[in-house]
Known about the structure:
Elements: E1 15-19, E2 22-25, E3 30-33, H1 36-39, H2 48-58, H3 71-84, E4 88-92, H4 95-112, E5 119-123, H5 132-137, E6 154-157, H6 162-171, E7 175-180, E8 183-184, E9 190-191, H7 194-207, E10 210-214, H8 229-232, E11 238-241, E12 252-256, H9 277-292, H10 299-313, E13 320-326, E14 329-334, H11 341-347, E15 350-351, E16 353-355, E17 359-362, H12 370-391
Parallel strand pairs: 3-15, 5-6, 5-7, 7-10, 10-11
Antiparallel strand pairs: 1-2, 2-3, 4-12, 8-9, 11-12, 13-14, 14-17, 16-17
Helix pairs in contact: 2-9, 3-9, 10-12
Amino acid sequence: MSALMPTYKRLPVTFVRGEGAVLWDHKGRPFLDGLSGIAVTNLGHCHPNVTAAIQEQAATLMHASNLFRIAQQERLAAELSAATGMEAMFFCNSGAEANEVAIKLARRYGHEQGINVPTTVVLESAFHGRTMGALAATAGHIMKENFEPMLQGFERVPRNDIAAIEAAASSNPNIVAVLVEPVQGEGGVRQLDVEYLRALRALCDRKNWLLMFDEVQCGNGRSGSLYAFQQLGVTPDVLVTAKGLGNGFPIGCCMARGDAAQVLKAGDHGTTYGGNPLGCSAGSAVINTIASDSLCDRVAPIREHIIHGFESALKRTDSVREIRGLGLMIGIEVNVPAGDLVRLGLEQGVVINVTAGNTIRLLPPLVMTDAQATELGQIVADVVNNIEESTS
């Protein structure tokens, strides 16, 4: 009997080693990784630059606390600022924590304007984390029902519907911010329309609201630019990241610019481990490796090879409803029963994920080779073919 709390329905595989885009289980069997630890190991497993940075820092200093200046934290903040144009950073340990910072920042921003019940607009199908504030911002009743009452101060509207937000503004004078994922991951790998994002930017400027982007999943090279906003042409006031920033080492960051960069004051928020020398050294290694190795340039070819491999091996085109996403966030919505897709994928040596009921979510590393990408697409198609044949 396991001593672990049963909060996960774990698959019967134990991975013990990884290199690049391949994982090995305890029996020595290789698996092609199409998930990257849920968009975390963007540089692949055990990237030498990240490994070296962690080893070097672990031998020198791992933790001293935010009561003191941390050189590695200041270096990573400067690197992120130079790369994004954001002006102030708060480092923490995860995406949910970084979203909590953004939520608090928006509320403090509202209070400074004399709004006693500041409200943040969020979207249907959104996922921002499972801590209490982030959970309240997240869509879906099932994951919330046993943890109510939820934190108040959120107004939910349909995605890609600017009229719905304008209507909310007419009925709720307490709105101070809009929080969106440029690409909804858990919500089915759905990219928000660029025109919608532009309209959001214009609306926030007109209303003096904060526009906040959750790029926990689509950031750190995965979209084809360091952060998705940079290719979408819409710059947020607050940018949230985590996952791929540490390539497996826990680190998150809430970044802000303009007026938003000046909102939080001493004592408004804190963290024991966030921004420690070890995590920030890993983060610097990731940011610099993405830039120096031009890894964002690999995103489009990898995506093309995956989709080509999938489409060339798929026997029935009506098995698939839609292929969507941005960069190496690929969603394949299928018309076949999806319950066994992950298990059958493992049996054929690939790691994949299913989200939003029937959407295969592929989040491969940026270091995957063209041949591996083609193979991943072909095997996923084989899995879909087998389910189609068994149910027809």
